[in-house]
Every structure is written in structure tokens, then in C-alpha cells.
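Render this sequence as a predicted structure.
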Amino acid sequence: MSAESTEMKHVSEDLLERYSLQQLPEEQLAPVEEHLLVCELCQRTLTEVDDYVCSLKIAARQVTEETMPARRLQTAPRRPLQWLLPLSSGALIASLLIFVYVGKPQTQPPSDVTLTATRGASPSNISQAPAHAMLTIMVDAGDVSAGPLRLELVNEQGKTVWLGSGETSQGRLAVKITRPLDAGLYWFRVYESDRLHQEYGLQVK
């Protein structure tokens, strides 16, 4: 028996726990085993420690077995979801592209339209233009001043959809509408010195 083991009265519970768990290094293992051969008190304590360690192992195993199904239930869907997420993102992008390129009305080629003063006439008899096209509106304005004119385009409900200005050239007025128009009935108004000079009907189809 070594000098360390002879001086050891009893093995501490910490050492006994580590001994039971087989975690003692070689330099501590031999003295503890030598002491256990001759000390009944430490033998009984070791038995209690072994029972305690065994119960901890059983409890840990039960907890692991009980939580395994729950973890599987939680983790099992993650694999398909990781595949579904890119698919969902792709479907969303595709939907947006469909909305932008299919659902959105396509802009038509620029178009020129000549208006005539037919306020109050039937829409079927007034000038017509294609919908969703960049229009250049031309009117005969020979009897207005050559100065800047205030121009306005309103829809059938009287709501302003475009405002602009222009000047006559050789008795005619030509102006580009800077936004495509949806189908409907519109009125093109020409103001001279803030006074309504003329109103022209425009049917957009």
C-alpha cells in the first residue's frame, strides 16, 4: 500500500463518483482500489454511489428515448421544407413575373390621333385611339394665340389624367401625352389665358 493510501482515511464521494464513472486517472485509481479492499465504510458508500450513478444513467436513457420521437417529429419536416422553401420562392417570383409581364397591359406602339371639336356628339362619332399607347394628339387651333396654351386631359368622370402645355405651329397644335391611357372616353381641353378655348372628344379602345 502506498503512503498516499495509508494516509487516506476514507475516499471522498467525489472520487468515488469518478471511480464509478471510470473517470479516475491511473495515478489515483490504484490508491482508491487499495483502500476499498480494506474499508467497509467506503465500500458501502461506493455501493450507494453506484446505485445513484446507475439511476442517473437510466433516467438519462429514458429522457432520451422519450424525447427522440418528439425530436423526430420536429426535425422530420425540416428536410422537405428546405426543398419547399426555394420552390415557394420560385413560385412567388414566377407569379410576380406573370403579373408584370402578363397581367399588366402591354404598351402599344406610339400613335397619332387628330381631334375634332365635337363636344356633345356620340362617342362613336368622335376620334378614336388605341388603348395603352403613347399618343400624339393633334388639333386644329388656328384661331388661338401663338403663346403657350394650358392643356388638360380628363376622363369621362371629369378627373384630370394629364396636364401639359403647348404652342401652335402653322395653325396646328401637336402634343405628346406622357402616359398610356386605359380604354374609355376622354376630353382634351385647350385653355387660352386660363379660359377654356375648346374641348375635344377622344374615345380610347
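Summary. The domain at 108-204 is CATH 2.60.40.1220 (Immunoglobulin-like). Residues 1-7, 75-85 have pLDDT under 50 and may be disordered.
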